[in-house]
Amino acid sequence: MRIARSGDEIAFDEPLRFETPAIFEEGIKEIKSAVTALAGGEKILGMVGGIAGTLDEANTTLVNSTHLPQWIGKPLKKQLEKIFETDILIENDSALAGLGEAHCGAGKDSEIVAYITVSTGVGGARIIKGVLDQSRFGFEPGHQIITAGGAHCLECDTVKAQHTSLKSLDDIISGTAVERRFGRKPYDIPQHDPLWNQLAYLLAVGLNNTTVHWSPDVVILGGSMILGDPSIPMVDIERFFNNIVTIFPKKPLLRKANLKDSGGLYGARILLKQQYGI
Q1: Domain with CATH 3.30.420.40 in the chain
Q2: What is the pLDDT of residues 200-209, one digit of tens each?
Q3: What's domain 2-95+262-276's architecture?
Q4: CATH of domain 109-257
Q5: Against a cut of 0.90, is the pTM above it?
Q6: Which contacts (CB < 8 Å, 24+ apart) does range 166-172 have?
Q7: Residue 215 pLDDT > 90, yes or no?
C-alpha cells in the first residue's frame, strides 16, 4: 500500500509504504494512521484510493478480489468517509496506474491508451483523451480466456470439465500463477530460462485481444513481471505481438510504463482533480 499527500499540483510528497493487511479492519486502521500522520492536522479536501479487484457499480465496495478476499463486501468507501469526513473516490488500482501513465508517463502523447499490468495479478484499463473509459464494473483484461483446452468440443466433455479447461491470462502469466505452476518465485527464475520467452508469447496473445477489442494508439505494460529483474523480455513480447496482430494496417506502439510503482498515486491525484477540481 502506498499513501501520499498532495497540494494543488499533480506532484505529491514522498509516499508512505507498507504491506496491505489481509484483514479489512486492520487495513482501515493502517490507512487511518497513515493519512492522519500525512495530513498533520490540516483539513483533508478529498481522497482517492485504488484497490486490487472488481468494485460494485457505484465504486463503493469490493465484490471480487483474488488477493484481498477478506475485503470483499466490506463498506470500504463508507468507512473511510466516516473516518475522514471528506469526499472519497474508490477505483481499481490498475485503472489509476493507467490514468497516471496516460497523463504523466509513457502514454502522455497518445489519445487512446491501453494499460496492462503484469504483477501478482494481471489488470489494466482503457483511457481515452486522458479520461478513464466508461464501464459498468471496471476493466478486467487479466480475466480474458486465452486457452480453452477441449471446451470447443461440446460432445467431448462434460460442462464441468469444459469450464475447468478454460485458462485466463492471469491464470498463466501472473507472478502468482508462475509460482503456483513452477514452485518458484518469478524473481528466482534466471533471465536465461526459456520460461520467460514462453510468457512473452502468452502475453502477446493477450495483447492481441486487447488490441482488437480496444484499438489503442499505445499499449503500456507495467508491473513487476515487466519492469523487474528478471522480467518478461520486451523484445520478445514485441516480436510475438507483431507476428500475431495482423488485422489492422498499423499496430499500436508497445511501451514500458515509466512511473514504476507510483503510477497509481499519479492517477489518483489526476482523478481527484478531474472529479473535484482540487
Answers
A1: 2-95+262-276, 109-257
A2: 999 999 999 9
A3: 2-Layer Sandwich (3.30)
A4: 3.30.420.40
A5: yes
A6: 168/122, 168/142, 168/143, 168/144, 169/122, 169/141, 169/142, 169/143, 169/144, 169/202, 169/203, 169/206, 170/66, 170/121, 170/122, 170/142, 170/143, 172/146, 172/147, 172/202
A7: yes
